[in-house]
Specification:
The protein is mainly α. The chain has one domain. It is built from 3 helices and no strands. The protein has helices at about 1-5, 35-45, 55-75. α2 packs across α3. The mean pLDDT is about 75.
């Protein structure tokens, strides 16, 4: 994941549920988490031609929130009459 997104290897990620914490706690996450997937989707789905780094960050964060809300909705929505 570090190679895909060029994350600062010294970044503090302890407050996030991420596979990146496996370095500090090898018994922790055994695979990419929902947060990791949302981060990658937000990063690769964002508009790369933002005027400022803050705009880019805001775009990634917004996409992560939308992804998380969709996942939560899918978990709480009962299946329809056709099982969908």
């Amino acid at each position: 994941m570090v190679a895909f997104v060029q994350i600062n290897p010294d970044a503090e990620v302890g407050n996030f549920p991420t596979i990146l914490n496996v370095v500090a706690d090898p018994a922790g996450a055994q695979e990419m988490t929902d947060w990791d997937r949302a981060y990658l989707a937000g990063l690769y789905g964002s508009e790369l031609r933002q005027r400022s780094p803050n705009a880019q960050l805001g775009d990634v964060a917004g996409l992560m929130l939308r992804d998380r809300h969709r996942a939560e909705d899918a978990e709480t929505t009962p299946p329809g009459p056709n099982g969908d």
